[in-house]
């Protein structure tokens, strides 16, 4: 533009200069601009030509949005960084351009922290196929808890409490996944099944237990689907699946002796009282053998 010219600028640290940074105007001293070793010190210590307009404004072809933050950092040695990731990245670009290493490093650290903070506490895969389910179960070293939810199965009408109980099952699944996410892989199945609400528990790739929360009840005129919420049993099975955290697996005698129900897959199903008596009998037998 007419009137713009280049010159070498040098003055005392207390000398004020006028800066036009991308159309945003700033007043500051040469002492502030040359306080640390960066591009601004080179520009305002007489070692580099600067462009000025006819009114004496020194022109810097950068966005002025964060230049005030850069000046405050040069004045104080520290500055509050922007809250948003986007603005922190914008400030990082300016700090890099002006070769302000300490501010650049501070921006990098802030961005890394924001990325860590943005990581979810737990991830719950949503199954889209049977094959995907098997791959998840077989590829993890953690025990697995799966909740199958299929409210769209409307073969029969639901009882009055079924919807509330369905929501309670989902809420319990969310709470357990938050509490045990570091130790257990929680997965949710919504791909569709004849089941409506069913919990499955896996250890070392095999199903260890299952809690089905639905049943068919008979009214005077028609059948109804009933969804239950066996909270204590679900919580018990979740704690039991933690036995499979060990690579070698849990002790089978311990499982037999402490189980209060029949296992799923390979073990015969008995009533609660029969299984409890059987477990106590085994414990007494082991104790007598040890004493003898």
Automatic annotation (TrEMBL):
GO term, biological process aspect, one: protein homooligomerization
Coiled coil region boundaries: none
Domain BTB: residue ranges: 15-83
Domain of life where this protein originates: Eukaryota
InterPro entries: BACURD1-3, BTB/POZ_dom, SKP1/BTB/POZ_sf, T1-type_BTB
Positions of the UniProt region annotated as Disordered: 259-292
Any matching Pfam family: BTB_2
CDD domains cross-referenced by the UniProt entry: BTB_POZ_KCTD10-like_BACURD
Name the UniProt record assigns to this protein: BTB domain-containing protein
Organism of provenance: Parnassius mnemosyne
Taxonomy of the source species: Eukaryota, Metazoa, Ecdysozoa, Arthropoda, Hexapoda
């Amino acid at each position: 533009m007419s009137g713009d010219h280049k010159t070498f600028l040098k003055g005392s640290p207390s000398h004020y200069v006028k800066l036009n940074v991308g159309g945003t105007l700033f007043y500051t001293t040469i002492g502030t601009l040359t306080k640390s070793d960066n591009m601004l010190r080179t520009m305002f210590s007489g070692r580099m030509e600067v462009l000025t307009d006819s009114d004496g404004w020194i022109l810097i072809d950068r966005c002025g949005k964060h230049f005030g933050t850069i000046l405050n950092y040069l004045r104080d040695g520290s500055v509050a960084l922007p809250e948003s990731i986007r603005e922190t990245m914008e400030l990082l670009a300016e700090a890099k351009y002006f070769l302000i290493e300490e501010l650049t490093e501070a921006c990098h650290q802030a961005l890394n922290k924001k990325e860590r903070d943005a990581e979810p506490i737990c991830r719950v895969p949503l199954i889209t196929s049977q094959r995907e389910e098997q791959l998840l179960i077989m590829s993890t070293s953690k025990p697995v808890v799966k909740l199958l939810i299929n409210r769209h199965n409307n073969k029969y009408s639901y009882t009055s409490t079924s919807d509330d109980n369905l929501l309670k099952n989902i809420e319990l699944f969310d709470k357990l996944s938050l509490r045990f996410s570091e130790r257990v892989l929680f997965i949710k199945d919504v791909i569709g099944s004849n089941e409506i609400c069913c919990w499955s528990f896996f250890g070392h790739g095999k199903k260890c237990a299952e809690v089905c929360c639905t049943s068919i009840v008979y009214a005077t005129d028609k059948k109804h689907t009933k969804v239950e919420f066996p909270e204590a049993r679900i919580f018990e099975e979740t704690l039991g699946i933690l036995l499979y955290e060990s690579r070698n697996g849990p002790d089978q005698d311990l499982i037999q002796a402490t189980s209060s129900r029949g296992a799923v897959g390979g073990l015969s199903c008995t009533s609660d009282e029969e299984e409890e008596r059987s477990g106590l009998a085994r414990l007494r037998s082991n104790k007598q053998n040890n004493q003898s």
